[in-house]
Amino acid sequence: MGNSPSALQQCIDAVGNNRVGFAGYPNTPFYQTTWVKPYNLDVLVVPAVVVRPQTAQDVSGVVKCADKLGLKVQAKSGGHSFQNYGVGGEDGAIALDMVNFQKFEMDTTTWRATVGSGTRLGELDKKLHDNGKRAIAHGTCPGVGLGGHATIGGLGPMSRMWGTCLDHILEVEVVTADGTIQRANEQQNPDLFWALQGAASGFGIITEFVLKTHPEPGSVVQYEYSLNFGKQADAAAMYSKWQDLMANPNTDRRFGSIFIMFPLGALISGTFYGTEAEFKASGIPQALPAAGGSQGQLVINDWLGSLVHDAEKEAMYLSNLAMPFISRSLAFRRQDLLGPDKIKSLFQWVDNTQKGTLLWFIIFDAAGGIMEDIPANSTAFAHRDKVMYYQSYGIGIPLSQKTKDFITGFHRELLAVANPGTWGTYPGYVDNTLVKPQEQYWDSNLDVLEQIKKIRDPKDIFHNPGSVRPAEA
User: Fold this and answer.
1) What is one Pfam family matched by this protein (predicted)?
2) Per the omega criterion (within 30 degrees of 0), is the bond before 398 cis?
3) Would the CA dihedral through 463, 464, 470, 473 be positive or negative?
4) Are strands 386-395 and 325-333 parallel, antiparallel or unpaired?
5) Quick check: 426 and 153 in contact, CB under 8 A?
6) End-to-end Cα spacing for the chain
7) What confidence tens digit (pLDDT) does each residue in 336-372 have?
8) Which runs of E-coded beta strand occur in 149-219?
9) What is the spatial order of strands in the sheet that 220-228 belongs to?
């Protein structure tokens, strides 16, 4: 006699009407590689079940099973969480893989797009282009899923010009903690809608988005300058100059840029959404190292070409491939940015510290622009006053303690030289070592989020190690 199905399996299989391919369990062959599909191989997570729903009704049924059995639920669209939060972030959760939610419709009167939450950014760009040459702001990795990206913030090179990805959300279809399928927008369930725009992992499972879109930019200028085979300290002055440009509130908002430190040097990469003549007239080229010669280049692209170029650069540093890695991050207001002496000291520390790997990257990503115009309490995403983010990555197969010490040590050194008021980080750069992570992710909006959570999900069904918790009585 075989083992009888557990109460969880009975409940889930009933929701899926015993469909083949609906759910995988820990005893399913190749469970980790074909069902769980972790992104960070240094973070082992074993969900109680991974479900691939096809409809909002399926999602509703699974959430009701979780409520009945006292289990937690998380969803993933692309599955790029640094701590594998899409499959729960810790053992025993119900994970919803939203891969089947690929709906796309474009209203050519309002230019609003209705998009399934399992759609990945690269596919979304193609569909927007093919249906009226439209566009939205988002990050550069085409494999990232819309469901997680658009509900945590969604920063990218267009954000200084158009805002975050979540600033494009007009309405969602969402399954709430009681299993109800609801619409949420500024008029309908406005409290829930506010919370979903920045903290969705603690409030519901979004099945589809209605997004506002923009006309594609007709021309895109892409700038790149590298400093190779030198010490990091040799790039400190270049970083200071770049930081001054990107922190200047008068810098043209059509320009987004990142500065990357890597084993053989440093790189400035930037994207200007306009013509070459407009780029030159902006004054930006005069504030950056010249793009001519072997160390720099200037590429004139169309919209889709620029996205491909950005994706190729992204793949050089942290691609779609699952791997063991460690990451840290921090957000900076304008008054928190480092002066030249502190920058030089920090870069020298990098030179003098063992890394334990040849695969490490430290990325400074410029923010600000139109995002600073938006009040911090307009959505759950609170970091409207931040003008710079940093992220560090150390990759190893296996990931060594020396690499972990290097990445953690850099973060410690940065905090030591930063303004004492430097606090918080982008919720998409999840980090289980953060002190008071909810406060760092949602800052001034956390109290309101906890009150909404208490009403909308008092049992904390939608839960991961960093998600919003219900307010205490």
Assistant:
1) FAD_binding_4
2) yes
3) positive
4) antiparallel
5) yes
6) 49
7) 999 999 999 999 999 999 999 999 999 999 999 999 9
8) 169-175, 181-184, 205-212, 214-215
9) 296-301, 220-228, 265-272, 255-262, 359-366, 386-395, 325-333
CA angle 269, 273, 278 (to 5 degrees): 100
Q: Which helix (H) or strand (E) segment is 262 a member of?
A: strand 255-262
Q: CA-CA distances (angstroms) from residue 101 to 55, 94, 95, 145, 247? A: 8, 18, 15, 11, 39
**Neighbouring C-beta atoms of residue 444, cutoff 10 Å:** 14
Q: What is the pLDDT, as a whole number, of residue 127?
A: 98
CB 389 within 8 A of CB 425: yes
Could you tell me where the DSSP H helices lie in 17-55? 31
Per the structure, the count of domains in the chain is: 3
Rounded Cα distance between 170 and 14, Å, is 34
Look up residue 248 and give its two tokens: 């200047």
- C-alpha to C-alpha distance for 432 and 465, rounded to whole angstroms: 7
Which residue's structure tokens are 């200007």?
272
Say yes or no: 224 and 89 in one domain. no
Residues 236 and 261 reside in one and the same domain: yes
Are 259 and 337 members of one domain? yes
pLDDT value, residue 39: 96
CA gap 175, 75 in Å, rounded: 11
Instruction: State the DSSP string of 349-416.
Output: HHHTS--S-SEEEEEEEE--GGGGGS-TTSSS---TTEEEEEEEEEE-SSPPHHHHHHHHHHHHHHHH
Compute the distance between CA of residue 184 and CA of residue 171 in angstroms, rounded to an integer. 6
Q: Domain check: are 234 and 284 in the same one?
A: yes
Q: How confident is the model over 14-25, as a mean pLDDT?
A: 96
Give tens-digit pLDDT for 394-420: 999 999 999 999 999 999 999 999 988
Chain centre to alpha carbon of residue 328: 14
For the residues 121-132, what does the mean pLDDT come to? Answer: 97
Mean pLDDT of the chain: 94
User: Considering the domain boundaries, does residue 463 fall inside one?
Assistant: no
